[in-house]
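Example 3.
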Amino acid sequence: MQTMHTKPILVKGLHKSYKQHQVLKGVDLEVEKGSIFALLGSNGAGKTTLVRILTTLLQSDGGTAAVNGFDVASKPDLVRQSISLTGQFAAVDEILTGRENLNMIAKLRYLPNPRKVAEEMLTRFGLVEAADRRVSTYSGGMRRRLDIALSLVGNPQILFLDEPTTGLDPEARIEVWKVVKELADGGTTVFLTTQYLEEAEQLADRIAILHEGRIIANGTLHELKKLFPTAKVEYVEKQPTLEEIFLAIIGKEAV
Amino acid sequence: MEGTKKHFFIDVSVMLGRSMRHIVRSMDTIITVTIMPIMMMLLFVYVFGGAIQSGMDNYVNYLLPGILLMAISSGISYTAFRLFNDVQKGIFERFHTMPISRSALLWGHVLTSLVSNAISVVVIILVALIMGFRSSAGVLPWLAVAGILAMFTLALTWVAAIAGLSAKTVDGASAFSYPLIFLPFISSAFVPTESMPTAVRVFAENQPVTSIVESIRALLSGQPLHHDIWIALAWCVGIMLVAYLFAMKAHKKRI
């Protein structure tokens, strides 16, 4: 359905206010196919608002936004066929088991063999053992993995991840990063919001900074680094960060 | 748009399957719903019943229709509760970003309410039979009773949907049902309205419960149906249509 020339995500002059409060004041951005695009910003910068508009949950007040070549306001159904959203809070059904959650979403995507799809996802996300337990018994990391697995059912071309690692422990965060990298390698376009600079640095092909409703910087990590004066050479004794210590003790390597 | 229409029934059946699993995994909700009306029935038959001049020789026969309505009025508050949870937990956002029919989400809950209230009604009728309830009605009048109760359940469930979608707290989502549970007291459900003071009597005779109770009573005792049945149906259809429109409006606001 997608034509060769359309960008997966194309946003021009997007505005959104809640009553008096202007959240987005003219946002422009584009995302290349198969890339990971990270939107950085502090709390309240408007990241979630932008994601909600792009995923058809919210109407903008002005400007245009096209996802997979379809206008989000006039062709929401076509947009919904191309995307998946993993929001800030795990959108899983806690009373159902992991397998039932996957089955349900596969049926709602009208896939021919929902059971098989569920089985594949459980294997891929290391949830086979927990498959028939209710999700309410899952740990935060397992829940997030299931959440992302649910988003990937039916192989959407464009995946939105709104602060996917907020509230996760370092181990679970690294797991999520691994999944996201694999997805992009497989050709999925990933739009990610985060407030962790390190996350953007680790994952993103392009990074945009949303500040007070506008994109104030947009480029590759290398380009963003060039915006600053050239690095000075200093000699400092490097202490391990607490995260490195934590990961070393529990026997995992930092990415 | 055509796509979502074509899949409407698949969507509804998946949603129904989902919330039926919720019900099966929390059978305590059905027990809670049936216990209060059964206690009422015991109290009124064995404690107050001797002093009430119902005009029927078997007071259980007189009382049962009102008790059934009371059970349904409290049973529907679980629909509000489940909808509220869906909205809060973010699973609705997942559904809304998928190309599935908007109203299917609500219909799944509404049909589940129909099934779970039918179970409660059957349990209460069984208890009434043990307490001496007898009916001379044949298959057709029983079907008519089932039809009226189903209409009543549908009408109130759509009211519950409004509450579930627009409530700010979980208590708010279910509090609306308390006045509904008490409506049968100010009707001909427990005592004939002739004994009430004029003002109360006018209210009692013109509120929906009385005409519904009278119709069910007439059907079960093999008496001819009065114009009550039309008033009863008009109330059910009227409430259902108005509540449906408001529920869809509240739903739209939530997206």
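Chain A has nine helices and ten strands. Residues 9-85+158-249 of chain A form a domain with the Rossmann fold fold (CATH 3.40.50.300).
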